[in-house]
Design goal:
Elements (H helix, E strand, L loop, with lengths): L27 H9 L4 H13 L7 H10 L14 H13 L5 H7 L5 H13 L5 H9 L20 H11 L4 H7 L8 H15 L5 H7 L5 H14 L5 H5 L5 H14 L9 H11 L1
Helix pairs in contact: 1-2, 2-4, 3-4, 4-6, 5-6, 6-8, 7-8, 8-10, 10-11, 10-12, 11-12, 12-14, 14-15
Length: 287
């Protein structure tokens, strides 16, 4: 593998669009070739993103991404570089590809010392509905808001990526009393994004309307980032009674449309009183 210095921390890596760092689009074959080589981490980073973004179904995609995830290193705060950029993108991509063969390695990543990698692994395990992840997620969050949810002394980050882990528990869908009891204290966390994630998970798992009310209230939060998160959380759950509140939220119409699409796709599981036609009509008004 190339030295970690090949990925400067201060410079953005490719992976935010369909083209590579030179502005040229690549093919699936090129993405696989870039991930297969080990001489250039920036090419691996972009290739992992490309395969996930394009939902590759090539038989080599998942094995190569698992190998990339296994290349993670211990973090060195003095190195001034991001050691695990490739592994993080590989973890994200594996969730998008939906192959359960990735679950064992993603589970191992949940115990990695790199919290960014734990975050990526948690989100992907949620996407994969990996029941085996529940026990590990509960263990990582067991110390509650005062432990796992505490701010680090040397960073604004929390001890655990609680937002991603809580969302994963909701997505996996194991609504056992112990799971609900562990999540509930996070609804009183000082950070609104953590409260939103906890309410989202509880609403998904229990279907109780009382967990929707705090999410609807967050749609009026003064911070745009919080309003955006609440939109996505209500959409992910498909809570149709939030239709009007979503439409009047001060946020981008593009995000409202994503949330409303969630109401259409997921809403039948929660509330049939608001028909999909009403949601579709609201979507038309935003276009």
């Amino acid at each position: 593998m190339a030295p970690a210095s090949s990925i400067p921390a201060a410079q953005p890596l490719p992976g935010d669009g369909e083209a590579d760092g030179n502005g040229e689009p690549i093919s699936e074959g090129e993405a696989l070739a870039r991930l297969r080589q080990c001489a250039d981490q920036s090419h691996q980073y972009y290739a992992a993103w490309w395969l996930g973004r394009n939902r590759s179904r090539h038989p080599e995609a998942v094995p190569l991404l698992i190998t990339a995830l296994q290349q993670r290193r211990p973090r060195d705060p003095l190195a001034g570089v991001e050691e695990n950029a490739v592994a993080r993108n590989a973890a994200r991509a594996l969730g998008k590809l939906g192959d359960p063969a990735a679950i064992p390695e993603l589970l191992a990543a949940l115990d990695d010392e790199d919290d960014g990698l734990r975050e990526a692994a948690a989100r992907s395990l949620g996407e994969l509905a990996a029941i085996d992840a529940v026990a590990v997620l509960l263990r990582r969050l067991a110390s509650g808001p005062a432990g796992a949810g505490a701010t680090r002394p040397d960073s604004p980050r929390l001890q655990e990526p609680c937002e991603a882990m809580l969302e994963a528990l909701g997505a996996i869908g194991i609504a056992e009393p112990g799971v609900l009891a562990l999540i509930e204290p996070f609804t009183a966390h000082e950070r609104p994004l953590i409260r939103s994630a906890a309410c989202r998970a509880l609403l998904q798992l229990s279907g109780e309307a009382r967990w929707a009310d705090p999410l609807v209230q967050l749609l009026d939060h003064p911070q745009l980032q919080v309003r955006r998160a609440a939109l996505m959380d209500l959409g992910a759950v498909g809570w149709r009674p939030a239709l009007e509140a979503i439409c009047r939220t001060l946020a981008e119409n593009s995000l409202k449309l994503i949330a409303l699409r969630g109401l259409v796709e997921q809403g039948e599981h929660h509330d049939a009183s608001i028909q999909a036609e009403a949601v579709l009509s609201a979507m038309d008004s935003l276009l």
